[in-house]
Amino acid sequence: MNKKYGVRLTPEERKGLQDMVRKGRAAAYKVRHANILLLADADGPGWTDERIAQAASVHLCTVRNVRERFVLEGLEAAVTRRKQCRPSRRRLLDGEKEAKLIAVACSEPPEGRARWSLHLLADKLVELKIVQSISHETVRQALKKTR
Question: Are residues 24 and 73 in the same domain?
Answer without folding.
Answer: yes
